Amino acid sequence: MVASSTGVKRGELSGHVPAGAPIRVLGVDPGLSRTGWALLAPSGSRYHLLAAGVLSPRPDGELALRLADAYRQFASLLAEARPDVFVIEDVFSTPRYPKSALKLAHLRGVLCLAAALVGLEVVTLTATTVKQRLTGNGHASKEQVQRMVFGLCDVGAVKTASDLSDAIALAIAGLHQARLAPMRTGAGR
What we know:
The structure is a single chain. The longest helix is centred in the C-terminal third of the chain and has 24 residues, at 162-185. It is globular and about 45 Å long. The chain has 189 residues and is α/β, with parallel strands linked by helices. Helices cover 44% and strands 18% of the residues. The chain has one domain: 2-Layer Sandwich (Nucleotidyltransferase, domain 5), CATH 3.30.420.10.
């Protein structure tokens, strides 16, 4: 597993993809100060965590410069990770902090643009959907989601930043969506 606080460096994504794991999913938990990411592949009924880390765009300066820095870091990650699907958390807002949601929406737009420019399928999931898919409860606590993530990825219960475990959870939920899509459309039968 790779953990990086400033982005991804060449050679970090050398994780072995198990046989029969044709899809690589990149889950991203966006944040203007820390954007967690996780690259997963299915491995039977479990998941193989190929790499994970945190992108940390410049913390100061105008929003446009911060977004440009986030774009450069994310484009570099996409070039190295070569995912098949990109899963990102949907924007949520609270009436008390509307500006935060707007700034986060700007970042999401930049990340989705970077993914679209390299031809990736973009899957947007709400936090409630992710929790439902992982625990069966759309209102599960962060701790419940983390326990499920660690169990499904055979990652020991380690102290990890919530943006990393959230990114892993997004990738797992995205893999569920990718596996269910053929069933919904009648393909694969």
